[in-house]
Write a structure and sequence with these properties.
Helix 3 packs antiparallel against helix 4. The chain is mainly alpha-helical. Strands 1-2 form a two-stranded antiparallel sheet. The longest helix is centred in the last third of the chain and has 24 residues, at about 150-170. The protein contains 8 helices and 2 strands. The mean pLDDT is about 95. A hairpin with a 3-residue loop joins strand 1 and strand 2. Pfam families: MST (PF04978). This is Damage-inducible protein DinB.
Length: about 180
């Protein structure tokens, strides 16, 4: 990402309604800081785990992309994932033993491409929505309800949380 001094200005964005523009501003900053954190990592560094129970940086990046894709379905399409979508995304969403077996050996371009493609789709879908849509309330989890604004805040919160894990893993890298 280029050195964009507007990253620190939360405000309206061309092509988006005012509140969605603010949300996009925050999402852009979060993604920029994630990019800065992972810049230059090797395959070995992306695959490194602190221990057998831990996640690798690559797994966390896959989780970020899968989470955003899942929330696209839940919010833009206002439905639950079907079996095919769940099959495709569950490795990244669950970060379980299957993910430990399957998510490795990819270079940074692989993960960044996944994150970028999902984000481009998110931005395209947000262009079709308005601020009233953000306030729409739908089911969330087993017995909660949440508006779309909260759900996209949650996507950012998740990325920020996992970026903290990435920083911890980077401090412990042995490769």
């Amino acid at each position: 990402m280029k050195n964009d001094h507007s990253l620190c200005l939360i405000g309206e964005k061309e092509g988006f309604t005012p509140e969605i523009g603010r949300l996009i501003s925050m999402m852009d900053y979060v993604r920029h800081t994630t990019e800065e954190e992972i810049k230059g990592l090797t395959i070995e560094q992306l695959d490194f785990k602190l221990d057998e129970k831990g996640n690798s940086i690559g797994m966390l990046l896959q989780h970020m992309a899968a989470t955003e894709k899942a929330f696209q379905i839940m919010t833009f399409e206002e439905r639950e994932m079907n079996d095919t979508e769940w099959n495709e995304l569950s490795v990244g969403l669950n970060l379980d033993e299957r993910a430990k077996r399957e998510v490795h050996g990819h270079d940074l371009d692989y993960y960044w491409s996944e994150l970028s493609l999902v984000r481009a789709e998110t931005r395209d879908e947000f262009r079709k929505k308005d601020d009233d849509w953000l306030e729409g309330v739908t089911p969330f989890g087993w017995d909660e309800r949440a508006n779309h604004y909260f759900k996209w805040f949650h996507v950012m919160e998740d990325e920020i949380s996992h970026r903290g894990q990435i920083r911890l893993i980077k401090r412990r890298l042995t490769t």
